[in-house]
């Protein structure tokens, strides 16, 4: 046991290739079996495991009321800083549990999933590290994994890769609430939407989601707690980011990105963190990158406890899956629904909201809530809904949203309304003239 603990603690500031990374994760799990759960969510094109280490008081399964959080790194194989700082984050969390009261409460009230590399093939293919770009960016099939997800705005006709499919299934099988995707090549926190159309304001150069205020808060939470990201200076004089954040579309348009997919189809708020101007910096800089990001990584995880959460049940107290629960005034294009345990989690900033719970076929239930900032208490406001007229025998399951460009359909509907309005105006003018 002492050898296992020693092995888990001996994490150097260097680059860990696939075998070393796996050995380290296995060592941590062996040393902290009650606090961690190690599993592979799938395999890369070349057959490498896509390892995820889960940390928390209940690491092996979802527990009602405890939100799910995830960090994913190394999606582009040649962007390497995130891969290593996530290993050091794991080390910090397991060694601080039971000693540091903040980390102890965080792990007792949050289930944290950490995937150090989504593209192990690309990392191994990067034989000559470069600050700018290498072919290791792509997976073994030459595909950019951050252009490989279904897009909510356009039919991007991509061939879904094994790594992408594994992450999509992972998102589907967990109740993720908050996430971040770690990249390199810039220094900024970027938030949804990455793509857009006139409905979301793309004509004005900003693609706004219904939860834009929350996304700005999440991005600022990370940048303001980072050693220098908040300064917004970027990596050269041509690129500046006020307060160290940017709307993804405002920076550059991206189809098939993972953060938009998480938000639209996964009911999970995700931002993209660009952590280093150099994509693959020398190993002797890794310790500074860890110091620069340590506080921000922890503070960002706390935000999973923003807003409101609860259960929707029937007259017998049984959970109702697939009930729609959303805050009034901010509907999602793919309505947010309860999970198998009838749970919902809505990330909302402090304030007064009307929460609308709907079981299809029954009258909606509205409740006004005053949401405080509960991130320091590691628990969102709890608000349950009970439908006395619904029984287990009469409620039906509702299919999930289809993987089609949902906002494309919204644009068509919006465009279809305009000619109708013009015709009505024209008819009114003609009637006035004839009278």
From TrEMBL:
SUPFAM superfamilies in alphabetical order: Carboxypeptidase regulatory domain-like, Zn-dependent exopeptidases
Active-site residues per Swiss-Prot or TrEMBL entry: 274
InterPro entries: CarboxyPept-like_regulatory (IPR008969), CARBOXYPEPT_ZN_1 (IPR057246), CPM_N (IPR033842), Peptidase_M14 (IPR000834), Peptidase_M14_domain (IPR050753)
Record GO terms (molecular function): metallocarboxypeptidase activity; zinc ion binding
Source organism, top-level taxon: Eukaryota
CDD domains: M14_CPM, Peptidase_M14NE-CP-C_like
Annotated GO CC locations: extracellular space
GO biological process assignments: peptide metabolic process; protein processing
Protein name in the entry: CBPM Carboxypeptidase
Domain Peptidase M14: 14-304
Membrane-spanning intervals of the chain: none
Family stated for the protein in its record: Belongs to the peptidase M14 family.
Assigned keywords, A-Z: Carboxypeptidase, Glycoprotein, Hydrolase, Protease
Keyword Glycoprotein: yes
């Amino acid at each position: 046991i002492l050898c296992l603990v020693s092995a888990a603690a001996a994490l150097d500031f260097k680059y860990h290739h696939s075998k070393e990374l796996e050995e380290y994760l296995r060592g941590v799990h062996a040393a902290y079996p009650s606090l961690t759960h190690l599993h592979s969510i799938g395999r890369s094109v070349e057959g490498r495991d896509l390892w995820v280490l889960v940390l928390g008081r209940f690491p092996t399964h979802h527990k009602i009321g405890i939100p799910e959080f995830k960090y994913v790194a190394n999606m582009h194989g040649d962007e390497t800083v995130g891969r290593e700082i996530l290993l050091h984050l794991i080390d910090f969390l397991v060694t601080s549990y039971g000693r540091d009261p903040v980390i102890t409460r965080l792990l007792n009230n949050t289930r944290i999933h950490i995937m150090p590399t989504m593209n192990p093939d690309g990392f191994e293919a990067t034989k000559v590290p470069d600050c700018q770009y290498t072919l290791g960016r792509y997976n073994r099939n030459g595909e950019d994994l951050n252009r490989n997800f279904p897009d909510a705005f356009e039919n991007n006709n991509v061939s879904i890769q094994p790594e992408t499919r594994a992450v999509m299934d992972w998102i589907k099988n967990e109740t993720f609430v908050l996430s971040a995707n770690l990249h390199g090549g810039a220094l900024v926190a970027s938030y949804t939407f990455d793509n857009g159309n006139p409905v979301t304001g793309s004509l004005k150069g900003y693609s706004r989601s219904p939860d834009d205020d929350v996304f700005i808060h999440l991005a600022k939470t990370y940048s303001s707690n980072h050693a220098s990201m908040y300064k917004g200076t970027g990596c050269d004089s041509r690129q500046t980011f006020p307060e160290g954040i940017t709307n993804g579309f405002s920076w550059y348009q991206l189809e098939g990105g993972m953060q938009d997919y998480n938000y639209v189809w996964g009911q999970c708020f995700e931002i993209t963190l660009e952590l280093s101007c150099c994509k693959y910096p020398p190993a002797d800089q890794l310790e500074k990158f860890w110091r620069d990001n340590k506080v921000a990584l922890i503070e960002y995880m706390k935000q999973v406890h923003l807003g409101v959460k609860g259960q929707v049940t029937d007259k017998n107290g049984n959970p109702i899956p697939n009930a729609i629960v959303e805050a009034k005034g901010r509907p999602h294009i793919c309505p947010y629904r309860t999970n198998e345990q009838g749970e919902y989690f809505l990330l909302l900033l402090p304030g007064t909201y009307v929460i609308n719970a709907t079981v299809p076929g029954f009258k909606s239930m509205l409740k006004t809530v005053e949401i405080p900032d509960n991130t320091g208490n590691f628990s969102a406001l709890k608000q349950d809904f009970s439908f006395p007229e619904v029984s287990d025998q009469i409620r039906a399951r509702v299919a999930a949203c289809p993987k089609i460009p949902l906002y494309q359909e919204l644009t068509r509907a919006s465009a279809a309304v305009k000619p109708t309005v013009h015709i009505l105006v024209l008819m009114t003018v003609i009637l006035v003239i004839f009278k």
